[in-house]
Amino acid sequence: MGGVDVGGDGGKKRATNSEVNMIPFIDLLMCTISFLLLTAVWVTNSRINADAQVPGPPDPNQELTPQTPEKVLNLHIAENDFGLVWKQGATVVSEVRVPKVPVEIKDGARVLVRYPELAKKIDEEWKQQGGHRDPSDKKLDQAILHTDNRLPFKEVIAVLDALYSPKREMKMPDGQVKSIPAFNMTFSVR
């Protein structure tokens, strides 16, 4: 067993030679070193590489091509009607109001709500204003659903069904062409 000789004063008293057990100290030291090494590895693996791109004058050899923002359909749900607003950035491209006329469909014990006029108008608007119609285009048109937090769930589902009614063709990676909804929808709750 490892020990440390602390010496003695050689005189009157007996020697104060006592053993200090070094094994727990070595175990503690090894655990501390392994903890530090593992922490160093985790810290270097969790870093995000970032390039510092300092703002300044653009490269004179590079042409600047301004990108126009895509059109986005904003669907506002009001008390008595729906507002279909196409925006390109902050600019309103077109705005259409559709009366809120629900059609109730009985499905066994359930009563479903549908808005066929809204679905028809969204389809017409997408055919006029939509930007992604080519089957090889993998991107979908964006739609933002603006609704009040108190809107009943069955009405939200009815509006979503109307919003997903316009279909477009998309070429899949395996070569097949499938019919998919034309919009990718996002919620915006007031």
Question: What is the structure about, briefly put?
Answer:
The protein is an alpha/beta fold and 190 residues long.
Question: How would you describe the overall organization of this protein?
Answer:
The chain is an alpha/beta fold. It has a domain at 71-189: Nucleotidyltransferase, domain 5 (2-Layer Sandwich), CATH 3.30.420. The protein contains three helices and nine strands; from the N terminus they run αβββββαβαβββ. A five-stranded mixed β-sheet has the order 3-2-1-6-9, covered by helices on one side. The chain is elongated and about 110 Å long. The model has no long low-confidence stretch (mean pLDDT 83).
List the helices and strands and how they pair.
Blueprint: H1 23-45, E1 71-77, E2 81-88, E3 91-99, E4 103-107, E5 110-114, H2 116-129, E6 141-147, H3 153-163, E7 167-171, E8 177-181, E9 183-189
Parallel strand pairs: 1-6, 6-9
Antiparallel strand pairs: 1-2, 2-3, 4-5, 7-8
Helix pairs in contact: 2-3
List keywords for this structure.
alpha/beta, 9 strands, two-stranded antiparallel sheet, elongated, Biopolymer transporter, 190 residues, 25% helix, single chain, Nucleotidyltransferase, domain 5
